[in-house]
Fold each of these.
Amino acid sequence: MVSDPRFYQLHAPVILGELVGAVNAKLAHGSPDHQLEGVAALGSATRADITFARSSKVLKEISQLDAGLCFCSPDMVEPLKSLGVLAIAVCDCPVAAFNMAASLLVQPRQNNFHDEAISSDAILAEGVLIGPGACIGDGVQVGKNTIIGPGAVIGTGCIIGHHCHIGANAVIGFSIIGDRVDIRPGAVLGEAGLGIVMSEQGMLEVTHFGHVRIADDVRVGSITTIDRAVFGETFIGERTKIDNQVQVAHNVTIGSDCVLAAFAGVSGSTTLGKGIMMGGRATIIDHIRIGDEVRIGAGALVTKDIGAGEIWSGYPARPLRQFLREQVSLEKLAAAKGNKQNGK
């Protein structure tokens, strides 16, 4: 999965042996003469891509891999060879080595707003209105009758559909936005999410090579942030409504017709089905799957997968009936203890 060239500059091809040497890794399997062109997640990498494997856990449900080069720890060489990986490089910190190698292949395109506020390369359809102080980068496409508010920033390569409204001081980068989308003031779409890996050099940020995609008729509230994916896309489905000051992390998928109330948070690589409702300050940890039509109470902390149609509440969250029974039991216990202390 090569990074979208609208958002990223590709320095391909790069010779495999040179790339491995540049990051001080050791080639354990494969030809040093192979040419590489892009970056991808382990499961979707092609023979032209580099990737990494954190641990053997990620291989449990995989029957075949086609990656051109995979960075890993020494104990993973044989399992990766058996799955068909073309070349394998070993090192102490595969994520750090991958990050360094990836920067030699792919780099984000930079905005050149110091040259002109509205790029002459941007394509603006009929009826587009642009407020004072707004900046529009190279290669941006804006659909008809879309309004871009004062001080908004639309980064290089972004696509915005027809009849959209981009609020004042919103910042949009690495994003593909559908029709009739309402982005409220101060929202930020497409920045890199929080990904940290420890290495010999200390803490390193995990580089992001993906984008954000917003489907038709979505609302994104003020001061809400939606992070771009590490690989692939962070996706918001049709007609979903997101309140103010909500955090949607990298590689999250949110289905259609969902509602996320203020201060809700969805951690990385979590998948939400259709018609989900999250109460204010509700939080879902990373790599969780939530079924269709689920209801999550205000302030809940979801740490487990939830099946379709269920209602959960509490901290940590559990099924609503269980939560209510526990609350009643606690109230009875507290009342009984109080009565005992008062001699009743």
Amino acid sequence: MHYYLMIFPTEALIASMLDSKDFGSYMATGAENTAAEQLIFAEITGEFGTDFDWDFAKKACVAHPDGRPKNSVYLSVYRVLERVPLRHVGDLYLVTRDGLSLKLVKNDLSPPVNWKGYALYKELCPVTPLVATTLLPEPFSLYLLDSTIHISMPAIVFADVKIDDLDRNEKSEGIFSKEGRDHLRLCFDEVRKHPRKKTKTIDRSFSDQFSYTHIGQGIYFARAKEKIIFFPMLDVETIRKNHYEWGRSANFYSDSKEMPDD
């Protein structure tokens, strides 16, 4: 039996007899391949604490009478992330709408490449806004988790989003329309000109428009009183060479007829 932490588009802790690849396919497309949903989940390594009913999972997550494995048993769908110690978070999976999974592995936190003094983050769980900020990933997470400020969270998962140099008249990588880029610049002007303002919401959700192609350096997990953990995103060439079908499903290639080298 396996335990999985769903973080996007919904939050849940699920027990399953399926391995991570089959679980991602089932959750994205359904048993009859009638659904189509992009989702992100992490493996959970072992049981912990008393917040979740592990005994129920063991009793309920058993094979069907005909031998088919149990696909899913929900243990919780509310305030899950904050109750999962980060040491129990294993590999992370990005699943496309047709059920293909890309595994991301934890690595040491590294500073963003070519830091411009500002960043765009897509919060994934437990809230989902698109946010402009002048903070690096770790200070950003500490700011969101700071219980002394008026609004804070006990835990957060977010991705950094690719962004053009705002000080140059560059065209966006397709994330925003012209009107969206103008709004983006106005929001960043606000946080850059007012140091006491740490963040500015660009979009309250952005979930329908969010694509794996938007992810920059990677995805971050943070929890109060714990050290942030980091999952680096694979670059396009690595995806093309080693995970071609996933990359095609996730629209990473401009030419759909492009094939990887032998």
Amino acid sequence: MNNSDKLPISITIIACNEEKRIGECLKSVMWADDIVVVDSGSTDRTVEIAEAHGARVMHNDWPGYGAQKQFASKQAKYDWILNLDADEYVTDDLAVSIRSAFQNLAESVVAFECNFEHFLMGRWLRHGEAYPDPHIRLFNRQAGDWNTRPIHEHIEISGPTNKLEGSIRHRTVESLAEYIEKINHYTDLQAEIIVKSGKKVNFLQLFSRSCWRFIRGYILMLGFLDGIAGLTHSMTSTLTTFLKFAKAYELQKKI
């Protein structure tokens, strides 16, 4: 692809020890004129792979998810930014949709929402909480940026948004064991947020929110149609809810 064919968009990616996944991520966005990878201390080939794909790589010590993505936004060459995690990649349909959107970009639109697809136990999930799971990932930094939450960070935008066709595919883990490790880490962070907010956790909250998470995702949102993978996703989502409140309860008892 000639440089003249590339879109005036910056891709921002935060990474640490992602040599197994970042190559696929980078290959999916070679149509962008600027690719920025912010590394927080990889000891594998992450930096080498990123540089081989033409990315601008810089180091920044880990400050938390939201703050690291804000740092990445500040390094972008262009105001329009598409943010990806290193274990995500853009489908061909989404790449075409982005190019089309920029050929007919309305001045009032400041961000675009993308659907997500999640891979678990050998298949791409199509139901439940896992799909279409829309999030804003393509945005104009003049109209907003990431918040600084340590987890479940999101882009805060002021202005009209639009929707893109296609999706971002998220291949987060190699095994269920790795998935459980991530859940354990994330729920530690979530529990700390609950405690810092001053909200008190009780039995009713712990029980009802966990049960509702399963009923909503597996039954009401048809997660059961994804078979064993759908059941696993709903059960692990329920476990996530249970653990974050149970851990918060445990922390509150120690105060």
